Amino acid sequence: MPLSSMTLANHLLQQRTLHPGLTNDLSQVIQQIALAGKVIGRELSEAALHGALGLTGETNVQGEAVQKLDEWANEIFVQTFDGQGSVVRAIVSEEMDKPREVGGHAGDRPEEYVLFVDPLDGSSNLDGNMTVGSIFSIHRVHGPLRTDVETDLLKRGRDQVAAGYVLYGPGTVLVYTCGAGVSQFTLDRGMGEFVLSRSRLKMPARGKVYSANESNYAKWPRGVQRFVDYLRDKDAATGRPYASRYSGCLVADVHRFLTGGGVYLYPGEISKPEGKLRLMYEAAPLGFIIEQAGGLASTGTERIGDILPTAVHQRIPLIIGSHEDVSRAEEFIQDKR
Ligand code: AFP
User: Fold this and answer.
1) What is the pLDDT of residues 94-125, one digit of tens each?
2) Which of 233, 241, 270, 257 is nearest to 326 (CA)?
3) Is the CB of 119 under 6 A from ligand 1?
4) Ligand 1 within 6 A of CB of 123
5) Can you tell me the distance from the alpha carbon of 168 to that of 275, in angstroms, rounded to the nearest whole number?
6) In what order do the strands lie in the sheet with 243-244?
């Protein structure tokens, strides 16, 4: 029995009456992303049977080993939007060195969109049959856009018109915001539809769990080390020590905190202050979601949404999760504690 009869399509229709920014065109883009998510989710569930797991032998623009499914999932996003009449003008993807112009038109519409996407976040989890996800960020562009000029594509997180992710776990889940709250949908495989499973998501102000790759501890700046030491200390009044959970998939860890509270951190390192995660298709969209649910996303010194990117594939340190937990991390990092 479905959890509710509110499909994603109906929800978008209903939300349009409440939220003027959610235009017909933007709804269409979100539904196309949902379609790509269904295709990717279906393939992932059977990938081992098709021999689709494993590495291609190539490295991507980030210098990371590319899984066959990274490349394939990227192609699904490109195909989904690459047709006459698509309102998406360009796609920026973790898996593509340069922005890809799609849609077969060139600035002839009053309003168009640029899609920033990590097609398969956490793909090194695939061989272990663990959760992975697709993260998306959507910006609206008015007037001429030169897709070959990178500076035309550098947008602040706070200017996103929508963002979200599809998570491929025990169930396939889609979470999105267009700036009027966060909604979660679960794929009903029988109906072939994403059906509303949680709406107006609000995360606890403080959690009991943190998530970080602690093998990097010795490389972190002292403020980050002191914050993690603090989380591990025993103090009944503040619910410490926090439990530690780290999946190797950013979007899965952040989703855990969206629903239950807590803090994820992938900080910069002393010799690599920019950190590992990507601003425009990882930190910014997840920051938009988390802040819509009452949480916070920060570099430790600056709100993620305020940063004007300098490159489409820019990396950024990220601390994201419950409001009080992220604020506490900022205090340690800024030497206020
Ligand atoms: P991929 O998208 O390339 O698989 O990267 C995964 C990721 O960006 C993020 O999802 C994880 O939290 C993080 O990297 C894991 O990195 P470490 O292996 O350095 O912990």
Assistant:
1) 999 999 999 766 566 777 899 999 999 999 99
2) 257
3) no
4) yes
5) 25
6) 243-244, 209-211, 263-266, 318-321, 296-298
